[in-house]
Amino acid sequence: MADLSNKTKPSVRGQAYLLDKLTNQRYILENSVSKIGRDESNAIYLMEDQYVSRHHARVILMQGKYYVEDLESTNGTLYNGEELIERKLLKNGDCITIGKTELVFMLE
Q: Cα(75)–Cα(63) distance, rounded to whole angstroms?
């Protein structure tokens, strides 16, 4: 009988989420597009932060990689402390600042 124990298993993409540095709340990135803002329709709803626009930013999953982009918000978005001008590739541990809220991108 053949030994099947060494067969290669299909790869499984790890779970991606944004971690709120202040509250430790995890926002799991389940969809190909996860919008962030103060409007209840957003996947990541930041109602407590008055500096967040209704539709502030979004995280996009494209070809197995996550990107962040600002949605022309009033107060802008910071990516690792720098103003986010164009879509940026997210790496594990990157910090996204939206209003006064700091979110850390995590990929397990």
A: 29
Exposure on the CB side of residue 64, measured as CA atoms within 13 A: 4
In 10 A of CB 15, how many CB atoms? 12
First to last CA, the chain: 36
Alpha-carbon span 60 to 71, nearest angstrom: 12
Any residues with CB less than 8 A from the CB of 62 and at least 6 apart, and which?
32
State the alpha helices, DSSP H only, in the chain: none
Residues 58 and 77: their CA atoms lie apart, in Å, by 10
What predicted TM-score, i.e. pTM, was given to this entire model? 0.85
Q: Could you tell me which residues are beta bridge partners of residue 28? A: 17
Does 1 have pLDDT greater than 90?
no
